[in-house]
Design brief:
The complex is a heterodimer of chains A (359) and B (123). Chain A is 47% helix and 14% strand. Chain A contains twelve helices and eight strands. In chain A, α2 runs antiparallel to α3. Chain A starts with a strand and ends with a helix. The model of chain A has no long low-confidence stretch (mean pLDDT 88). Chain B has 123 residues and is an alpha+beta fold. Chain B has a domain of 85 residues: Alpha-Beta Plaits (2-Layer Sandwich), CATH 3.30.70. Chain B has three helices and six strands, in the order αβαββαβββ. Chain B has a four-stranded antiparallel sheet. A two-stranded antiparallel sheet of chain B has the order 1-4. In chain B, β2 and β3 form a beta hairpin. The chains are: A alpha+beta (359), B alpha+beta (123). Chains A and B meet through α4 and α5 of A and α1 of B.
Chain lengths: 359, 123
């Protein structure tokens, strides 16, 4: 047996802006096992339910994560609406779908850039983020914030989009879609990208099920698991099928995200064509009493919001299970047996978001 | 194929104008909807204090006795909860951020004068 060395990876590492720590047990350049540790940036947001009332908590939920901010807010609102049995107006549901998908596109473009940066393709990273910038402008124009949308609200949404704006957004999105094609072509066909991704970090279909992987990680292993199929918001009213790839490696997970980009564009066009007129919110009266699980698909995978109310302004219990937390065991599995140089690329393929994992 | 498409992007980037702005000369336009600093028309304010109660970060302090409305710009997250709650609609969100503060705890203070119509003071 060769000498074993333990190399620390993170919490400060150039490929990851966020603090996750991995102890990599190496034999020469080969990773034998990886021991993860998290808990560097716990903020105690779940405990805040004791101080903030259930309506104010929407602002806190939106700030759990900077990238999927809107979907966090939406999930929280869905959980509260579930407890209080609030019927959200149709138009609000469609607007949530549109903003949710815009948020997914911006997250995936961000990830594509970071991924390119992870294997050293700096110019591709810049191009991805340039495309994303155009989308962020659209988001700011329609919601008022670039990353913290601030439009989620218990009982609906806080802003409406006029039909003229909808049309303009659609036109702009078509330009962004065209620009994205040029980008994803590179991820799809470039030989240097393929060399760094094909066959790396394999997660078999069985392992993905056993270890409870979620989101693009599980879909890259050939399992059609997508919470949007539950039909929340307006997802039940538009036609779409979950994107799956059967490669089980880093390349497959990258392809899932590339194809999901276009799926999201398509969903937005469909939602814009079908959006009904009407109010965008309902008045919320009373306090939540009871408990509810909301399961929502984020760009990174399934997020579970659990809320328990006791008929007071403050919730009794609030719990969030984020997708990155579910994807850590599959990550450890993928890292076993890989080369040290592939570790950053493999870690990036689960799209780790440590801030929301630790809240 | 991919070399072709990246080549197209690269040559377009080479020939077109920079993606960035020459900042002090060319400023980024803010949108009408942009959530910036909270502003108040203090003379319309009835000092009811609902904004203070609704503020999730406790950035607003309303003192009825001295007729003062003050906001801690470092605490404010521009969520607009106060704007939605205001019964007199005298609060709004500017589409511009507030200028950087140079001192901690130096709140923006608005004082309601006894004579309506006069300018508000900002300490």
């Amino acid at each position: 047996m060769a000498t074993r060395t333990i190399v620390p990876f993170g919490p400060q590492h150039p490929v990851l802006p966020e603090p996750i720590h991995l102890d990599l047990v190496l034999e020469d350049e080969k990773v034998i096992s990886a021991i993860p540790s998290i808990g560097f940036i716990h903020r105690g947001l779940e405990k805040l339910v004791e101080k903030k009332d259930f309506l104010e908590m929407t602002y806190v939920a939106e700030r759990i994560c900077g990238i999927c901010s809107f979907i966090h807010g939406q999930s929280y609102c869905q959980a509260i609406e579930g407890v209080m049995k609030i019927d959200v107006p149709e138009r609000a549901l469609y607007l949530r779908t549109i903003w949710g998908e815009m948020s997914r596109i911006h997250s995936h473009l961000l990830w594509l850039g970071l991924f390119a940066d992870g294997f050293g393709f700096e110019s591709l990273f810049m191009h991805s983020w340039r495309v994303r910038e155009k989308l962020l402008d659209l988001i700011e124009e329609t919601t008022g914030g670039r990353v913290i949308f601030g439009t989620a609200k218990v009982g609906g949404v806080r802003r409406d989009m006029e039909s003229l704006t909808l049309k303009r957004v659609e036109d702009e999105l078509k330009i962004i879609e065209k620009m994205s094609h040029e980008l994803t072509d590179v991820f799809k066909k470039d030989s240097s990208v393929k060399r760094r991704t094909v066959g790396k970090g394999v997660l078999s279909k069985e392992d993905a099920i056993t270890l409870g992987a979620v989101g693009p990680t599980v879909r890259g292993s050939g399992i059609a698991s997508d919470m949007r199929k539950l039909g929340y918001a307006a997802y039940g009213k538009i036609s779409w099928e979950p994107v799956i790839e059967t490669g089980c490696d880093c390349y497959a997970r990258c392809m899932v995200r590339c194809r999901e980009l276009y799926q999201s564009f398509d969903m937005i066009y469909q939602a814009m064509a079908k959006i009904p007129d009407g109010p965008v919110d309902v008045k919320v009266t009373g306090n939540p009493n009871g408990e509810y699980f909301a399961r929502v698909e984020q760009p990174r995978g399934e997020v579970i919001y659990y809320v328990k109310g006791n008929n007071t302004k403050n919730l009794e219990r609030f719990r969030v299970r984020t997708p990155t937390f579910a994807n850590v065991p599959p990550l450890v599995k993928m890292l076993g047996g890989c080369e040290l140089a592939d570790v950053p690329v493999i870690v990036l393929t689960i799209d780790p978001c440590i801030s929301c994992t630790e809240r | 194929m991919s070399q072709m498409s990246i080549g197209k992007v690269v040559s377009r980037s080479f020939l077109s104008r920079p993606a960035t702005r020459l900042y002090p000369f060319e400023k980024r336009p803010f949108y009408k909807a942009t959530r910036g600093a909270v502003a108040i028309d203090i003379e319309k304010c009835i000092l009811c204090g609902i904004c203070q109660k609704r503020c999730p970060t406790a950035a607003i302090t309303v003192t009825k006795a001295t007729k003062d409305w003050q906001i801690n710009r470092l605490r404010c997250i521009s969520c607009g909860a106060c704007v939605d709650a205001c019964p007199k609609k005298c609060l709004w969100l500017e589409n511009m951020y507030s200028p950087a503060v140079v001192q901690k705890g130096a709140d923006d203070k608005f004082h309601q004068l006894d004579k309506p119509g006069l300018e508000t003071t900002k300490a």
